[in-house]
Design goal:
By secondary structure, the protein is mainly beta. The chain contains no helices and twelve strands. The strands form three sheets. It has a five-stranded mixed sheet with strand order 1-12-11-5-6, with no helix packed on it. A hairpin with a 2-residue loop joins strand 7 (61-65) and strand 8.
């Protein structure tokens, strides 16, 4: 099924786009997102993410909230941890080929399960961001 991408402003924390490292080696990139909703939601109501950089879609990611890290498919049962309206979550995307530092076109959409919507609605935005080197 095709994703229903709905534009929302101020989802991406613009200064958060940076390389991600594990054991001192680059593994991909990370990005912080604000919830594209007017209220906080438990992670169980987040139906995934649509992340793209320069037109390429990335699916190998983890979500960190309140110091705990989950894969998107693990979040379906997480009802006691919320994505709060005043606390961005961190997405870490692992890539085979690291992104080069500098400007990139980044799209970040969060899939939300809203009770009055017939299907998961992916809300987010696309921005030109500069990838930072530091961890």
């Amino acid at each position: 099924m095709e994703k229903w991408l709905v534009p929302r402003k101020y989802v991406i924390c613009e200064e958060s786009f940076r390389r991600a490292f594990r054991d001192g080696k680059p593994i991909g990139f990370s990005l912080r997102l604000r919830i594209p909703e007017y209220r906080s939601l438990p992670l169980a109501l987040v139906g995934g993410f649509h992340i793209q950089v320069d037109g390429k879609v990335y699916e190998n990611l983890t979500v960190t909230s309140e110091g705990l890290t989950f894969r998107p498919e693990e979040m379906e049962t997480v009802t006691d941890i919320y994505w709060l309206i005043d606390q961005p979550i961190t997405l870490t995307v692992e890539t085979d080929v690291p992104l080069t530092p500098g400007k990139h076109r980044v799209g970040a959409y969060a899939g939300l399960r809203i009770s009055y919507m017939p299907r998961v609605m992916y809300c987010g935005e696309e921005l030109a961001l500069t990838l930072k080197e530091e961890a």
